[in-house]
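User: My advisor, Dr. K., asked me to get a structural model of this assembly before our group meeting. I'm new to this, so sorry if the format is off. These are the inputs:
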Amino acid sequence: MYGALGGVDQSPGGGNGATLPCENRPSMPEAEPTKLPDTAPDPDTPTRELVLGGLSGGGGVPAARSDLRHFLPGLEPERHVTDWGRSELVEGLVDRTVYDFLYHYWFRVEVEGIENVPAEGAALLVSNHAGALPPDGIMIAKAIREEHRHPRPLHMIVDSPLKGLPGLGMLIAKVGGVPAHPANLHRLLFDERQLALVFPEGRRGPEKPLKDRYRLRRFGEGSFVEAAMRARAPIVPVAVLGTEEAQPTFAHVSLLRRLTGLPRIPVTPTFPLLGPLGLMLYLPAKVRIRFLEPVPTDRLGDEAWNDPAQIQTLAGDIRALIQENLLELVGGRSSVWLG
Amino acid sequence: MDSRRILIIGLSSNWGGRLAQALEREPEVEAIIGVDSSDPRHELDRTEFVRVDTQHALVRRIVNAAAIDTVIDTRLMVDPLTASLGRAHEINAIGTANILGACSGSQSPVRKLVFKSSADYYGCEPHDPAFFTEEMGRPHSPRTAIEQDIVDAEELLAGFAARNRDATVTVLRVASAIGVEEHASYPALLGLPIVPTILGFDPRCQFIHEDDIVGVLEHAVRYQIPGIFNAAADGVLALSEVISLLGKPMLPILPPWGTTFAASQLRRAGLRIPVEMLRQLRFGRGLDNRRLKASGYSYRYTTREAVVRLRAQQRLRPLLRSGAEPYQYERAVEDFLRWSPSVQSASDGRGASWSPLAKTSYDDLSGEEVIEIVTSLEADALAALARYEASHQARRAVLAAIQRSLSRQPPAGAA
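Assistant: The format is fine. Below is the predicted structure of the whole assembly, which you can bring to the meeting.
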């Protein structure tokens, strides 16, 4: 179920998400601000019954219990790390060195429709995903910082097994990655009203071979739509051109992947030829980022998130929208390297 | 406060003792009884201590004899550093079953049960949410014996709550504590001159200050808050942040692969890091503490402030070591102080606040108490009292006693 959130392997039996109990899903916090949680307890789960007893009992307990946004911890000015583990210092350092260079000189990023990213309130950005070590997330975040009239931090939802990797997992958290989990996305969007970015293709995007470039993979079961509906946050589709050529994948070494436990070991123009750091090298393709009109999710009726058909339809529409714009961008460019 | 007769199980734990001290200041609380298998470590004025393990029959007798309406269980052992695994299992799983057995039944006077559980209930895995909420339960099966014990204990409590629907059951999942208690895993690790960490990991950690644990327990006693609550301070810090706040160097000495083996080597060198702790040093954990805040509790310290206080404490410790004598429990002395007629409780100051003599308003006095003082009053005072009593509570026994007194005295103005 974690995989549904745009990070993780979706194949049956693959990925650690499959082993997790599904009881987590209904226990996700309700998004509706005024509605009290269901007070009819499930007879099979006494623990939850106890919880709900607490919610409905409430003698002398102030405030509506389902909307706890007023009780978020305040910001402490002395701190430079957020509660998510995002570090101002590390992010600033990487931004000034690596991101700046990649954005301005290497990929020469051009941005369209930046005004479609809301200046305040929650929004869920949804993008295509490509490259062995995909640069699309950091380039979208950088574009919002550089071009937006009201620069905001963007939280990238990443594959949660990455958290278990030494070094990389730590670095990803420090520069703004958040492990994929429905509760994490809900807290970001509903409680904190932040910007979040998901890649619904998940691992299938970066794993696809060069010949399939710019053909979007399956969008999972669309739980990113469900999360946006629960949080009543608009979805902003994003099409990114150029990342497929920046780091094309020729093949995969599955034996090595199984031995190391890493998510994937791709063969790219520079990896493993130039050693592990070769994974950090990109070809200088021209990158274009197009932000599309926000798709509202709060006008689909009450509790639309309980309707899988509606979720699937909206996920399919968004996928088609991104695919259409990608093909338009590919058709419009004259050179892979010069744009 | 509805609770008047309170039983604290685990009085000798740091929280149990401090909670008893806090509750002693409440004039509404009639009786505080503490139970533990070892002597209390805190100086207590009126709390009665019974040295007993968690045998079901014995605790039940105490509960029934003292008509206990509120039971607070602070006994759960969550840190492998504080007890052996066998002892921990006895305390956590078997002990909890015994306590619940002693409190249940249709004849039981117990109306409220407050149970101090632990955030270790949630475990620690890479797939965990960044902030656990109370309704999430445990996303994967327990890995260690202690985690299994905590899960078992909470299951027992859920069953107890389902069977005793008119009792208020509060479960507090308390984050790792930092404060005076030095024997727990985190304070022990952070107390080292150089803090060892796992190479390539900088976990998120969230603590709760000791004062807040006592505060949360007291809050649960004072108000009716049934259900499960996370108790953790505001703010989730990165471990590197914590260590730099403490002003110590960080040493990533534990390798990311084969960590358990490296930890066992460190143990030979005298530093014990339990398995639960190793997982926390790798993946970290955050709790959503908002439900408890919504129930009206406000934390005294954020996680950062708790760490800053820990630093002050660590720096002062060498200076204070030779200072005040720690409190020592002596049964004979405690009995003398509580029951001897020679002890003047008024001079104590604290004693006065709970003694029946300290009741200030006339309306608070019971009929017998009024009758006792009636004989010592002058005639005109008696007449005034008779008028007041007739117009207010009009207790027949009191009015009769006043009349008797008046008839024995010459009527006012006759002299």
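One thing worth pointing out at the meeting: Strands of chain A lie at 110-112, 123-127, 154-158, 177-179, 195-198, 235-241, 251-252, 266-267, 288-291.

User: Perfect, thanks a lot.
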